[in-house]
Amino acid sequence: MLYPDTVESEVLVHKPWFVAVMFAAIFALFLTFDLSGTSMGELMRPVIGEPLESGIYGRFAIAFVIAVLFCLNVVLIGFASLRVQITIVWLELLLLFLAFFKTFNLSLPFMAEKLPFLVTQGLFTTIYVSAISIVIASAIAILGAVAKLSTNGFAYAIASFYTSFFRGLPLLMQVYLIYLGLPQLGFIIDAVPAGILALSLCYGAYMTEIFRSGIQSIDRGQWEASRSIGFGFGITMRKIILPQALPVIIPPTGNQFISMLKDSSLVSVIGVWELMFLARTLGQKSFQHMEMLISAAMLYWGVSICLELIQSRIERHYARSKVR
Amino acid sequence: MSEKIIDVRNVSKWYGAFRVLTDVNLTVEKGERIVICGPSGSGKSTLIRCFNRLEAHQEGDIVVNGIPLHDKMRNVGEVRKNVGMVFQHFNLFPHMTVLMNCMVGPMWIKGVSQAEARKTALQFLERVRIPEQADKYPVQLSGGQQQRVAIARSLCMQPAVMLFDEPTSALDPEMVSEVLDTMTGLARDGMTMVCVTHEMAFARAVADRVIFMNAGQIVEQGKPEEFFKNPQHERTKLFLSQILKH
Ligand SMILES: Nc1ncnc2c1ncn2[C@@H]1O[C@H](COP(=O)(O)OP(=O)(O)OP(=O)(O)O)[C@@H](O)[C@H]1O
Ligand SMILES: [Mg+2]
């Protein structure tokens, strides 16, 4: 929370100067584009006559109408309650996006035909690879964080070498190193396990740092109180320190989960049939690249939204003990 | 025959080159109430934190409840579960309700059932007179209430001795008395206590012995009447005159 002041200030979008500036900016912006050839020009036909021949007057009228609609929209939304505001703005942005995609003239039947395979093979593999990697990375992160905070020289050295190395190399290179390098040592490894291993190790390194800073953020008094009751290291860590560190750890970890979901597309370079790989190959045959890329983009986005929702639920759960 | 709960012999402790404790000798017998006072930085906290080995001492012997404390000991938990400690800044577990704060010790250390731990916890919350706060979280309580929960949390382990490190010095004046009343109640019931505090009225009322520390040494000790009426050392006189001036 930004903890708003209790003194009500006037809503920004209802201040005359703000509306005026906004109007002028939008008006100027659309004056520079010639929209008379688009569907917007068609809509304005009753006012400006034949759009293509309307010239400077047509441009002016179109920009004026857009600026009025935009400002009216913003001012009206300003009256709504917070939740309604958020919903309306989301929907409007989404509509704009759809309008943008519509300009590609996508073939919907083609998308509908390929979508099932994209989901059952591609999305499934993506989620499967990321989910396993996330679990392994979290386990590595807890061990790594404890090692980095310990006074044991070996543990610290190994953990800091590990985080330094895996944060220091590009993930793509790690994928190649593991897939092509391990067989040199005599371990033949399949593409999927190799991908999972690379993702786990790389994200484990980043998350080690997140967990370490989370654990460090807990006041020393909590350790002392826990010890003075008689709890050993295990209980102190699991039941006292980690639960308090979680609210600090969760937001950046949520970021990592979402980022991992998309970075899993890097394992397509070693031939894993995940979402990105399929999106590229399925569209190739009939040169319908955009259809497949946009379908895949929507699927990635959808899963990310699910992760965001889960994260906000967990954050709310941990906010309980902070409420006064 | 009296029973020694804490026995400190010729203890010294250093932080790097700085000597915090110098040749400290002290015994605490069962049922004894001891108040430790002294100027800031004299090593009072450090001394009582050695009693449950939150701090390590380098020279001398400390025996608590029959168990000697040293770096190689395996059963430090055995000592700690018998020694309750109350901190200046309460150090309650903020992610647990007040009731859970009091239940976890017995449940996770002694393996007591949840129902029984709950019964004990409620009983001790009753005793510090805040049973109605049991289901709140620590941040929702006032400082004085939090400190009383901290006392209840320690009592739930049914320790042989309670250590207090300036339990009232982070509190507003009107909350000090509610905590001191709780502590006086404990003393009446025969709890063995070692309190670091500057509350001289409390010391006068409940202490069997007042100990004055300066620069890591025990300078003077005695029964409260004698200690306050005619202190022997110049340093003690100065300290008492400063603290009683207000
Ligand atoms: N971790 C540490 N490292 C170095 N020096 C320390 C450390 N902890 C305490 N000291 C020093 O040891 C001395 C004794 O500290 P201690 O906290 O025991 O004093 P105190 O008598 O409890 O004082 P106060 O009344 O202010 O709480 C102080 O001079 C302090 O600066
Ligand atoms: Mg102190």
Automatic annotation (TrEMBL), chain A:
<comment type="similarity">
    <text>Belongs to the binding-protein-dependent transport system permease family. HisMQ subfamily.</text>
</comment>
<feature type="transmembrane region" description="Helical">
    <location>
        <begin position="185"/>
        <end position="206"/>
    </location>
</feature>
<feature type="domain" description="ABC transmembrane type-1">
    <location>
        <begin position="123"/>
        <end position="311"/>
    </location>
</feature>
<feature type="transmembrane region" description="Helical">
    <location>
        <begin position="124"/>
        <end position="147"/>
    </location>
</feature>
<keyword id="KW-0029">Amino-acid transport</keyword>
<keyword id="KW-1133">Transmembrane helix</keyword>
<dbReference type="InterPro" id="IPR043429">
    <property type="entry name" value="ArtM/GltK/GlnP/TcyL/YhdX-like"/>
</dbReference>
<feature type="transmembrane region" description="Helical">
    <location>
        <begin position="154"/>
        <end position="179"/>
    </location>
</feature>
<dbReference type="InterPro" id="IPR000515">
    <property type="entry name" value="MetI-like"/>
</dbReference>
<keyword id="KW-0813">Transport</keyword>
<dbReference type="InterPro" id="IPR035906">
    <property type="entry name" value="MetI-like_sf"/>
</dbReference>
<feature type="transmembrane region" description="Helical">
    <location>
        <begin position="56"/>
        <end position="79"/>
    </location>
</feature>
<feature type="transmembrane region" description="Helical">
    <location>
        <begin position="289"/>
        <end position="310"/>
    </location>
</feature>
<protein>
    <submittedName>
        <fullName>Amino acid ABC transporter permease</fullName>
    </submittedName>
</protein>
<dbReference type="InterPro" id="IPR010065">
    <property type="entry name" value="AA_ABC_transptr_permease_3TM"/>
</dbReference>
<keyword id="KW-0812">Transmembrane</keyword>
<dbReference type="Pfam" id="PF00528">
    <property type="entry name" value="BPD_transp_1"/>
</dbReference>
<keyword id="KW-1003">Cell membrane</keyword>
<feature type="transmembrane region" description="Helical">
    <location>
        <begin position="17"/>
        <end position="36"/>
    </location>
</feature>
<feature type="transmembrane region" description="Helical">
    <location>
        <begin position="86"/>
        <end position="104"/>
    </location>
</feature>
<keyword id="KW-0472">Membrane</keyword>
